[in-house]
Amino acid sequence: MSDIEQNKEQKIVQSNETMMQYFEWYLPNDGLWWKRCAAKAENLHELGVTAVWLPPAYKGTSQDDVGYAVYDMYDLGEFDQKGTVRTKYGTKEEYVEAIRAFHEAGIRVFADIVLNHRMGGDETEEVMAVTDSSQDRNQQVGGARKVTAWSKFTFPGRAGKYSDFVWDHRHFTGTDWVENMAESGLIYRFAGKKWARETDPENGNYDYLMGMNVDMNNPEVVKETKKWLRWYIEETGIDGLRLDAVKHISFPFYKELLKELRARTGEPFPAVGEYWSGDIGRLLHYLDCVDNEMSLFDVALHYNFYNASTSGNGYDMRGIFANTLISERPEHAVTFVDNHDTQYGQSLQSFVQDWFKPIAYALILLRREGVPCVFYSDYYGNPVQNRPMVPNLGKLMKLRSTYAYGEQVDYFDHPNVIGWVRRGDIAHAGSGMAVVLSNGDGGVKRMEMGPAFIGQTFYDALGNCPEQVLIDEEGFGEFRTEGGNLSVWVRKSAFEDLVINE
To answer: Which residues contact 458 (CB under 8 A, 6 or more apart)?
Structure first.
């Protein structure tokens, strides 16, 4: 049995899953990231993290690449290519060691997989291409002509190790830049190629995103992709996949890929897709198209959080979960507040305002539905952009893993002050809580904890309200929160435990 297999057998089984996106856009290019991951694994386990989503580990167009300008997916920081052996994050050996450290701490590892495009070709080719409008890819605006495209990938630094597959223009659908043309706002679709039919309808057809667009209808591409994925899993020991930009790839592709992967390995091998749309109808349609073979990030909920944070007390909190995956298909929802793409200065900038972030995190961490994903910069802060840590985020994570269990009863009966209770269960000693939050003035909620809590005293675990709450003879308590804030009320033993272990 290999070390990776032994480490997988040693995983600690936990309930109340919590994922952390363990990277952000502005990390330093010092090659030490995988070592930092390994050093923090045990600490993350103590917080209640059960899975980490790590950045793309393969070679991009430069050492400074965050991981989405994909060059060679077989090069995990092992070969001298694009002017560097290591990636921004370190070497292949350090990456595998980081995964091993997470496994030893009982944490699963999700690898970020980018299959839609390639960049940084090694050689040019002359290719016949037509031009399509970037605003409507169904509209051809120019006839066939010869273009010079960076469409050949020979990977000379790797010299055929792991795979001798050479990518050329036959394996791509098109590109938005060629050497011999100076036009802008156009996409060059290679002659004889068609955009995939089943993709997001934005821009008429959103198959094309960037770089050299991979043709997933080419049997050679599909065969090589499957071969690479098997190699990657065996080489690194990853436990799951974060699938980038799924709305830009033919919808049936991942359905078949994941079914075949699971049949071959005999493992459930979880996957979560990034379908960037706030339209719940599109998210549900995609899940239907892939036979619910994956979960999706709840982008619709993210936009609810963003809109609430920019609207102050004008946002009706009773509808915070309206038209979201967490309300429509919670078993396939991975919830989040922000990520690397929503950061300031990034392509999908929609950063939730600081005052609302603790509220948003309570709404994904302390409830029963979905799997929450905590953003690295929210937990650690971001000195490059002078962004602070989210107050009490560590406590909220610990509260989830330790006390957020049992029946959930909602009190979403006021436009600004809402709450819910978790009534605990016998499997988790001391579990149960009452949560109250407000996006306006402070307020009080009379909420029923139930007969098991009669006569017990509750304290605000976050320290925002200093008083005590006594559960009355009917099982109710009067739970308060300050304006624009939240309070999480737990019984005395749980409160003291959090103080001791903070």
So the answer is: 434, 468, 469, 470, 471, 477, 479, 489, 490, 491, 492, 495
Residues with catalytic function:
244, 274
First to last CA, the chain: 39
Q: 315 phi and psi, to 5 degrees? A: -90, 130
Rounded Cα distance, 298 and 225, in Å: 27
Cα 259–265–266 angle (5° rounding)? 80
- CATH code of the domain containing 204: 2.40.30.140
- Residue 501's pLDDT is what? 61
- Phi, psi (rounded to 5 degrees) for 298: -85, 80
Q: Tell which residue, 489, 306, 308, has the closest CA to residue 415.
A: 308
Mean pLDDT for the chain overall: 94
Domain assignment present for residue 425? The answer is yes
The pLDDT value recorded for residue 182 is 75
Q: For the residues 274-298, what does the mean pLDDT come to?
A: 98
Which of these three, 191, 214, 237, is where a domain ends? 214
Interval 188-202: pLDDT, tens: 999 999 999 999 999
Q: Look at residue 255 and tell me if it is in a domain.
A: no
395 domain residue, yes or no: no
3-state SS of 170-225 is HHEEEECCCCCCCCCCEEEEECCCCCCCCCCCCCCCCCCCCCEEECCCCHHHHHHH
Q: How many CA atoms lie within 13 A of 440 on its CB side?
A: 14
The pairing of strands 271-273 and 19-21 is unpaired
CATH of the domain at 442: 2.60.40.1180
Structural domain harbouring 497: 408-501
Any idea which residue has 């298909």 for tokens? 329
